Structure formats: structure tokens, C-alpha cells
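Ex. 9. Protein: 5287_t:CDS:1.
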Amino acid sequence: PTLNLQIGCRYITQLVNGVEGHLYGNSTVKADLKNAHAFSMMMILTTFGLFKNEYPLTGNFTFEHIQNVEYSEYRTIHWSSNLYFEIPWNKFKKILGDKIWCDYEKLCAYP
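Predicted C-alpha cells for 5287_t:CDS:1:
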């Protein structure tokens, strides 16, 4: 998986843990508000499965490849953005599937 997807997984896992803590009475938190700009929003939206280019981005792109990149930060998201969605909780978790509860310690471990 891409680095954006893996980092976004950590964010989504924190979100799920917070919501479930509230739903099951393990938390007194009433709202979980997060501040994000384009860079961090891109990771979250990538985790949701958005912004998939036709081919992987590599360091040896030709100028033509660069011009044809469909999804990039400056084309897809503003510097300050809001994300809101309303969906039944079980459906949300089913859609995200294995993108929740990623092993963040393994991701960030020094080799």
C-alpha cells in the first residue's frame, strides 16, 4: 500500500476508536474535531479510496506523464478543507474494512 494510505489508516483508526468509545459508553467525548490542511486531507481521502491515478507515480515520469496525472494535491483539494459524511456506522466500517486497525508501530519501525 502507498504511504498516504498507511498514514491515513492511522487517522481512520483513531476516528473509529473515538466513535466506538462514545457509542459503547467508554468515553465522555462528545465530538472529535480534527484540523487538517490539503496534505493531511489527501492521506485521509486516499485511505477512503479516492484519487487513484491510472498508473503509479514514479521518479522517471516523462513530461507527458506529469501533464496527465489526474489526481494531485493542487488539482483535487484546497489548502483548507472540510470533510463531512453521514453514513450508518456499521456500513462505514464495512466499507473501510482492513483500512482500520493498521499496525502503526510496524509502519513506523526503524528497519
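Check your answer against this statement. The CA atoms of residues 84 and 90 lie 17 Å apart.
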